[in-house]
Amino acid sequence: MMKQMNKGMVYVVLIVLCLTGCVNQHPEDATEQEEYVIENSSSEDETVLAAKEKVEQLDHAPRIIATSVATAQICERLDLELVGVCSSSVSGIPKRYQNLPTVGTSMAPDMEVVASLAPDWILSPVSLRTDLQPKYENIGVDWAFLNLNSVTGMYRSIEQMGEIFGRQEQAQALVKDFQEFYQNYQQEISGKEKPKVMILMGLPGSYVIATPKSYVGSLVELAGGENVYESDEKDFLNINTEDMKLKEPDIIIRTAHAMPDQVKEMFQKEFETNEIWSHFNAVQNGKVYDLNYENFGMSANLQYADALEELRGILYP
User: Fold this and answer.
1) What is the Cα–Cα distance from 273 to 286, expressed in whole angstroms?
2) How far apart are alpha carbons 21 and 152 in whole angstroms?
3) How far is residue 101 from each of residues 26, 87, 125, 138, measured CA to CA in Å?
4) Neighbours of 60 (CB within 10 A)
5) What is the value of pTM for the model shown?
6) Which pLDDT does position 42 carry in this prediction?
7) Could you give the angle at the alpha carbon of 121 between the alpha carbons of 116 and 123, nearest 5°?
């Protein structure tokens, strides 16, 4: 009996796949503005309907765990109750959830603690799916991975969460806020020359180049900047400084994957001691900026407006 029940649960998990996001997948057929319009969620979306039916069949409010700060913030704005959240020493969990049990970090949740909370659903960023999906399947729990690789991806996931958990009104209000904000933002930067931008994402002791596939890269793109490094597949690239110099960006922006204070010190030391940086026009012109970690982390979050306003001040002073 137990084996059959577990098998059925795994089948449901396999058809209720990650909540994917969604900009126009063929931007070459769209205008620049249309590329960032969120597509309306479809009631025919089988995976969303299957998840919605599962929630409606519960004889209690769904027990949900949010394993990242960004997913917890989204749940708070959708007025969802949680039974557990991730622990975080840098970014704040919404006050509504601060007294809940913690399940460990977003990258390595403690599965014994997770299982002890008897969740019906676990919500996590899609960037961690490869590592976390097998763990969730092992404890026979339904899960959804939110596309937090871009702002538009995040809002598509919000629409789908609203459908699944009966929070359509809250979800559409959030989507409307984004669409109105970005329409005004585009009008304000319309006609301005696009600066060439290089984005450095750091950890203490190392750094990589962020492409438009990363969250911070997608923000720069939304802000009208031209990323000097493109990639159709990778969020981040390992590039030597000689190749970076050949790109000659107008602006260099630096942000942190984690431990922002240590990363800022690392970047300052790197730019002071590595002579090649002194030859970059951006350095010579004082166009090197450290971004606010609260607004520019690894995952899309609801501070996108603050992030885009910060970028506007950098790209169009």
Assistant:
1) 17
2) 7
3) 43, 9, 19, 21
4) 6
5) 0.79
6) 47
7) 105
| Mean pLDDT value of segment 173-196 | 94
The residue among 194, 206, 212 whose CA lies nearest residue 251 is: 194
Going by their DSSP bridges, the two strands 142-146 and 121-125 should be labelled as parallel
Q: Rounded to the nearest 10 degrees, how much is the dihedral formed by the CA atoms of 13, 14, 20, 25?
A: -170
* CA 277, chain centre distance (Å): 30
What the block records as the tokens of 222 is 């939304």
Q: What is the pLDDT of residues 248-298, one digit of tens each?
A: 999 999 999 888 889 999 999 999 999 999 999 999 999 999 998 888 878
Strand 206-210 versus strand 236-237 pairing type: antiparallel
For the record, the structure tokens of 17 come out as 């796949």
pLDDT for 110-124, tens place per residue? 999 999 999 999 999
As beta bridge partners, residue 200 has 209, 254
Give ∠ CA 305-232-307 in degrees, rounded to 5: 10
Question: What number of residues does the chain have?
Answer: 317
Of 35-44, 133-142, 204-213, 250-259, minimum mean pLDDT range: 35-44
| Burial of 286 from C-beta contacts in 10 A (0-12 / 13-18 / 19+) | exposed
